[in-house]
């Protein structure tokens, strides 16, 4: 995203839920602000005034980062250079394709999935996609505890 911004292009990260989008936004915002990169959050449940502000930014801010839900499909981008789809299996092919059609350029794509769908796997074989596997857990990650809690 920093590389795309540095070359004057926009980046999008789209997520299947507002909660996940907000988590990404809050994390990316720290770095974007420190580097002077404009960053915007966009979901369908935002107010009209805020939606209009982000829509204008998508048309004019050539090096901005946009984080949100599938609602990002409703924006028109001036110079999209990077598209990141988190949880691709939930977003669907149509959502990604809709974003690609809104771009004048063919942006670089990163498709993330904890459970790859057959289409994604086929793309790594028959297309020029590359599959990467992350084997290490994030530093400081707390252990997952699964418990059965009975009603009293």
UniProtKB/TrEMBL annotation:
<dbReference type="InterPro" id="IPR014001">
    <property type="entry name" value="Helicase_ATP-bd"/>
</dbReference>
<dbReference type="InterPro" id="IPR027417">
    <property type="entry name" value="P-loop_NTPase"/>
</dbReference>
<keyword id="KW-0614">Plasmid</keyword>
<keyword id="KW-0378">Hydrolase</keyword>
<keyword id="KW-0547">Nucleotide-binding</keyword>
<keyword id="KW-0347">Helicase</keyword>
<keyword id="KW-0227">DNA damage</keyword>
<keyword id="KW-0234">DNA repair</keyword>
<feature type="domain" description="Helicase ATP-binding">
    <location>
        <begin position="1"/>
        <end position="134"/>
    </location>
</feature>
<dbReference type="Pfam" id="PF00270">
    <property type="entry name" value="DEAD"/>
</dbReference>
<keyword id="KW-0238">DNA-binding</keyword>
<dbReference type="InterPro" id="IPR011545">
    <property type="entry name" value="DEAD/DEAH_box_helicase_dom"/>
</dbReference>
<dbReference type="InterPro" id="IPR047112">
    <property type="entry name" value="RecG/Mfd"/>
</dbReference>
<protein>
    <recommendedName>
        <fullName>Helicase ATP-binding domain-containing protein</fullName>
    </recommendedName>
</protein>
<keyword id="KW-0067">ATP-binding</keyword>
């Amino acid at each position: 995203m920093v590389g795309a911004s540095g070359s004057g292009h926009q980046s999008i990260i789209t997520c299947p839920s507002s909660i996940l989008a907000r988590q990404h936004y809050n994390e990316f915002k720290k770095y974007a602000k420190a580097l002077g990169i404009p960053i915007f959050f966009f979901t369908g449940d935002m107010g009209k005034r805020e939606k209009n502000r982000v829509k204008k930014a998508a048309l004019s801010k050539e090096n901005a980062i946009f984080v949100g839900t599938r609602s990002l499909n409703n924006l028109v981008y001036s110079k999209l250079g990077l598209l990141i789809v988190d949880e691709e299996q939930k977003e669907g092919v149509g959502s990604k394709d809709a974003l690609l059609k809104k771009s004048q350029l063919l942006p670089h794509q990163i498709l993330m999935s904890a459970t790859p769908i057959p289409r994604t796997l086929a793309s790594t074989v028959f297309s020029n996609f590359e599959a990467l596997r992350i084997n290490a857990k994030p530093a400081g990650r707390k252990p997952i505890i699964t418990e059965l809690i009975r009603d009293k």
